[in-house]
């Protein structure tokens, strides 16, 4: 246990094995570029961009300066019935870089809040159009949409749902797309599984499509262990939604801002949803912020009635916070100047070769990749699921590499500034870790 002034007990850590951590803490005290510094002075290569968010790497000068400047100029402005220039500038820039037709931006403070916001907009949109019977929300098994009640209701990760009651009513789930029998060790999009999208037709037949407001999916499912959409799957979802007048929401909290080699996954897959949720890479993870991008038709549907009336009864005290906006603007500039939103596409081949070279390591049962994302699925220890991958996480950290694990899958998502020499270090270290793992 540390000194009284830095007692570890009080902080109830999120998504963390608190007792294990507090016995042997892993403490980061500084970061720059691709590396963290630990409290015992070691350099740790960031193989996860923090939590999939530090896309431009750490301590970027433009971002640091923008925060300092904004804090000294306008620290806060009320988010309701008042404005400040940077929120409008940022919204315009986001709309300009968003897929065609997504012209409007609603600011939030996290991915979870973006999800709640998008679900609420979807419901309210149908009501505003006089189609108030559309109240059902459809998610997917294994989906992750943050931790608030809407998000865990449409989400499909059992551990995130089972302790929290009956959740939202009127929610259903499509089946997930993981099919290792047919698709194991695929590079990029799997060949097999477009037909999983037809599960939406089954749900439409069960509930009647006229009761369904929206379908939400991660175009690439990250937190469940990195599942790529099969070829043709997203296109088919889009077609079914169009056929039945259902809104399609892409949760791009992870895939937004260059992770797959395009600004958004919607660009990457050539499928445009009606709403996109973002957060994380929007501010390089430095200041909490999220944004929901909406099609013009959706925004326009609300712009009716008396002009003095609030059109959407939703928003957060920190929606479009000036410091968050300044951070996001500096982040977007950094992405642009350094070509980071397409850099993952340039490195894809080198990254995939290095990743898939681990195929012969013990216990590896699948490897998946796309852009600067990699997943290595390990066979679980019998009777102790997750233990093998978690040990890999601990060993990698000891050897100077931060990875992330979910279940028995190791997920990799480094900052987009990664160089080939870092990729070599990352996979050499992982090979060593996996080779010596029980
Ligand atoms: C797809 C997706 N949606 C939502 C979230 C929640 O974001 P936050 O943790 O910022 O609330 C995440 C976080 O990993 C995510 O991956």
From TrEMBL:
Transmembrane segments: none
An annotated GO BP: biotin biosynthetic process
Keyword terms, alphabetized: Aminotransferase, Pyridoxal phosphate, Pyruvate, Transferase
InterPro entries listed in its UniProt record: Aminotrans_3 (IPR005814), Aminotrans_3_PPA_site (IPR049704), PyrdxlP-dep_Trfase (IPR015424), PyrdxlP-dep_Trfase_major (IPR015421), PyrdxlP-dep_Trfase_small (IPR015422)
CDD domains noted in UniProt: OAT_like
Name the record gives this protein: Beta-alanine--pyruvate transaminase
Entry-linked PANTHER family: ADENOSYLMETHIONINE-8-AMINO-7-OXONONANOATE AMINOTRANSFERASE, BETA-ALANINE--PYRUVATE AMINOTRANSFERASE
Molecular function in Gene Ontology: adenosylmethionine-8-amino-7-oxononanoate transaminase activity; pyridoxal phosphate binding
Source domain of life: Bacteria
Pfam families xref list: Aminotran_3
Family: Belongs to the class-III pyridoxal-phosphate-dependent aminotransferase family.
Cofactor(s) recorded in Swiss-Prot or TrEMBL: pyridoxal 5'-phosphate
Species of origin: Aestuariispira insulae
């Amino acid at each position: 246990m540390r000194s009284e002034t830095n007692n570890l007990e009080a902080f109830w850590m999120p998504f963390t094995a608190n007792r294990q951590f507090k016995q042997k803490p892993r403490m980061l005290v500084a970061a720059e570029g691709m590396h963290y510094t630990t409290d015992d002075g070691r350099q740790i290569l960031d193989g996860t961009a923090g939590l999939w968010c530090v896309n431009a790497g750490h301590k970027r000068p433009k971002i640091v300066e923008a925060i300092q400047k904004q804090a000294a100029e306008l620290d806060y402005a009320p988010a309701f019935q008042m404005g400040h220039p940077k929120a409008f500038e940022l919204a315009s820039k986001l709309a300009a870089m968003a897929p065609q037709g997504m012209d409007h931006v609603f600011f939030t403070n996290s991915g979870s809040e973006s999800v709640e916001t998008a679900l609420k907009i979807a419901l309210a949109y149908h009501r505003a159009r006089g189609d108030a019977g559309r109240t059902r929300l459809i998610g997917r098994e294994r989906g992750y949409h943050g931790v608030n009640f809407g998000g865990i209701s449409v989400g499909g990760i059992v551990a995130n749902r089972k302790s929290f009651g009956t959740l939202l009513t009127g929610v259903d789930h499509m089946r997930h797309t993981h099919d290792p029998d047919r698709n194991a060790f695929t590079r990029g999009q799997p060949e097999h599984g477009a037909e999983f999208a037809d599960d939406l037709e089954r749900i439409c037949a069960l509930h009647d499509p006229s009761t369904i407001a929206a379908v939400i999916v991660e175009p690439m499912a990250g937190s469940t262990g990195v599942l790529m959409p099969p070829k043709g799957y997203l296109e088919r979802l889009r077609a079914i939604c169009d056929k039945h007048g259902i809104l399609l929401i892409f949760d791009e909290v992870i895939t937004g801002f260059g992770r797959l080699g395009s600004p958004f996954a919607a660009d990457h897959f050539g499928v445009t949803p009606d709403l996109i949720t973002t957060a994380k890479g929007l501010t390089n993870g430095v200041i909490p912020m999220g944004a929901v991008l909406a099609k013009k038709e959706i925004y326009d549907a609300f712009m009716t009635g008396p002009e003095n009336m609030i059109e959407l009864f939703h928003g957060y005290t920190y929606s479009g916070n000036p410091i968050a906006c300044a951070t996001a603007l500096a982040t977007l500039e950094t992405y642009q100047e350094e070509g980071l939103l397409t850099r993952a596409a340039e490195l894809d081949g080198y990254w995939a070769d290095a990743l898939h070279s681990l195929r012969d390591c013990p216990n590896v049962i699948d490897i998946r990749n796309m852009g600067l994302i990699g997943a290595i699925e390990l066979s679980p220890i019998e009777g102790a699921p997750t233990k093998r991958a978690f040990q890999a996480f601990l060993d990698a950290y000891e050897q100077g590499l931060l990875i992330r694990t979910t279940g028995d899958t190791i997920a990799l998502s480094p900052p987009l500034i990664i160089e080939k020499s870092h990729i070599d270090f990352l996979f050499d270290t992982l090979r060593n870790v996996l080779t010596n793992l029980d």
